[in-house]
């Protein structure tokens, strides 16, 4: 291999190395932008978690205070619920537990629409 060929080969490899360096710098800049974005989101999530924890503690304290206030009322547990309220609570509990899905009664849509006002 002649000196000229060696110099040309060296020049070609230098150009390839410079191109690779430029590509890696661009990739590094893109990754740095993504990293900065992730850090920003992480900081926001940490603030959210801290505020959630603080809010949760305040709610727990409020509930505890309310329960303490209710426990100071003598005879509160001895007061019977009205029959209608007890039935409504029972129906609501049944609905929440899925009893409403088990109903086998068909609903007559025509009678429901007949009771509604005309538009």
UniProtKB/TrEMBL annotation:
Superkingdom of origin organism: Bacteria
Annotated protein name in UniProt: Uncharacterized protein
The organism of origin for this protein: Sphaerochaeta pleomorpha (strain ATCC BAA-1885 / DSM 22778 / Grapes)
